[in-house]
């Protein structure tokens, strides 16, 4: 579709711009202020949150030990106690291997042994 450039389809800016009176400008400012108030606090910039400083190594070690103690005590009904008299950690306590240290470890071992024997027995009969 081609437009005929000889005809003006829209009035240009000088034809449609009406002079603004001080009363109209004041009314428009009032409407803009009201619209801005209605959008508060969405128009406010996001507040910057200061970054947390890295915890000292002692605090990180204590947090790690507390996390480990919590994992080892789960699912206990009583929370672990935090002893404030500990001022220095000489070495981390040994942790149990979670794969081997659980409630049904004996049953798992027996099941694995039975599966190995069944597999060996099946391979022995194929030969």
From TrEMBL:
Stretches for region Disordered: 1-67, 83-127
Compositionally biased spans, kind Low complexity: 41-64
Basic and acidic residues bias (residue ranges): 1-16, 26-37, 88-104
Protein name: Uncharacterized protein
């Amino acid at each position: 579709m081609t437009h005929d450039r000889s005809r003006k389809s829209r009035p240009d800016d000088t034809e449609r711009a009406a002079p603004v009176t001080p009363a109209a400008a004041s009314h428009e400012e009032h409407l803009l202020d009201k619209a801005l108030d209605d959008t508060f606090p969405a128009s406010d910039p996001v507040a910057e949150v200061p970054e947390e400083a890295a915890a000292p190594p002692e605090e990180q070690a204590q947090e790690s030990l507390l996390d480990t103690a919590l994992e080892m005590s789960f699912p206990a009904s009583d929370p672990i106690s935090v002893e404030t008299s500990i001022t220095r950690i000489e070495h981390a306590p040994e942790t149990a291997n979670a794969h081997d240290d659980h409630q049904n470890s004996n049953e798992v071992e027996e099941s694995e042994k039975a599966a190995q024997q069944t597999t060996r027995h099946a391979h022995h009969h194929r030969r």
